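Dig into my protein:

:::
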Amino acid sequence: MTMMQSNGMNTTQKARTLEGRMRHFETLLEQINASIDPSTQAKVEEVIRVLMELHGAGLERMLDLVWESGLAGQELINGAFAQDELASSLLLLHGLHPLSLETRVNLALEKVRPYMHSHGGDVEILGVRDDGVVQLRLDGTCHGCPSSRVTLKFAVEKAIYESAPDAAGIEVIGESNQGSGPAGIEVIGESNQGSGPAGLPTNGKVNIPLGEGWVEVPDLKSMKTGSVRVQKVVDTPILFCRVENNFYAYGSLCPKCGQLLGQAKLSGRELACPQCAHHFDVLRAGRDLDEPALHLAPYPLLQENGMVKVAV
């Protein structure tokens, strides 16, 4: 029996515990720095830096030994170590992750593609610039869709920074200029990765990439196909729709009349407001079929490992 099994904690719970400890450590360090003179502060940070370097060197040596053990060890590093939340976060923290930045971004996009596909769209990685900025392109319905930026902000950006917190930023090629980048390029996220006290990362993402913002929604599997439900997620009422085996999440109010959509009727892919009778295509980002300028407010949703999660 492993120590993890003996105390009843899985890897994700272990990672969350470590994340909390890291945050507590950073808080304590800030408090110490605020109460001591600059000379002592520099010594404290030097002690922490040396300790981090020692741990990093030890971890690197352990990886070398596992790699030199043969094919099984190499597969373990590139497989389980690279994909495990806790192990991966520590490897990223020390700059030892075996997978390249572009490979990790591709793996992250695979997680959100089912959501993109469910809305008739897709996302493609065009490459990673020399400065570490990830360049993407939206295809299908997502290109130019009024919910594109919502989809990117909550789904794509989060997924990328979970798996690749060392990415310097994200650019979407071909999107309208939002004033944050050159014409035809929209910058949707810039990492504030850098060195904090004692060389620690300052973006809060390298330590434990847990997908903060994604919330599991229980009991949705009990919904029948063709049904709708308004359910609160972190105090936010969200409209859930089920079409065959796929779930879709939107804001709970009709964009036309403001009526709560909990009693709306779903026929195939069309959702009808019970008040104004406007129809919305839930498979196409909630577009209003009667007034194309309107659309439901989408919430990014992921279905994986039998669970449904939304980003709020």
